[in-house]
Amino acid sequence: MAAKPEYGNWVPKRLIYMSGFAGFVFSGLALVFWVLAVPAVLFFLVAAYFVYARHQFSLQGGKVQDRVWTLVLANLDWNGEGKALDIGCGNGALTIKLAKKHTKAQVTGIDYWGKRWEYSKSTCERNAEIEGVSERVTFQKASAVALPFDDGYFDAAVSNFVFHEVSDAKDKREVIREALRVVKKGGKFSFQDEFLVKQLFGDTEDLVETIKSWGISKVEFIQTRDADFIPRALKLPFMLGTIGIIRGEK
For residue 148, what are the domain limits? Predict the structure, then answer.
């Protein structure tokens, strides 16, 4: 049986186990204090929601996770010649997708990895080998707020659902600015994140104008949360209800 890549799931199993366990605990306590049946039911409902979401994200289910990655590349207006960067590559899914789409490109994926996520550099490298792009793809550990590359080093850059997670940056707009720093003049970019959360990125119109003020020639915001393949139940704010794409040309 041929090996299959492992790209993980945006709903970790631990969320299901933790909420389900809490439901059982409160169910037991409800035998003594009946009022605790209410939180027991709520925790079981949360567990059921996470089971549903995990299935929808998976390739065996709704393939939503894969389609969200595809949105990033669909909004990257690049000819595929040169070097590209994927910021926050996780298990390498978007990095590898980019390399498979653009067969002449050299693609670098960076991530900080760590225990919080079920991702690793070794899994990225294994996935790249399975997908047949290991000769054109490299992975390295780095922080998105301090990329270890010279100004204008890449011809294109992508990122998906990462910038809001960079704890080293109080102002998440600075993570965008750092990403654009390493893109050459005339280079292309497509970044998908929770750009509709004003507490993180401010008003989207202001965000676009701010990016333009950095000397970026073309910037456009695309509201991707309304994509028809995303089920209504996954459009809640803590899932995919606040995502959009910032795309353009430096």
Answer: 64-249
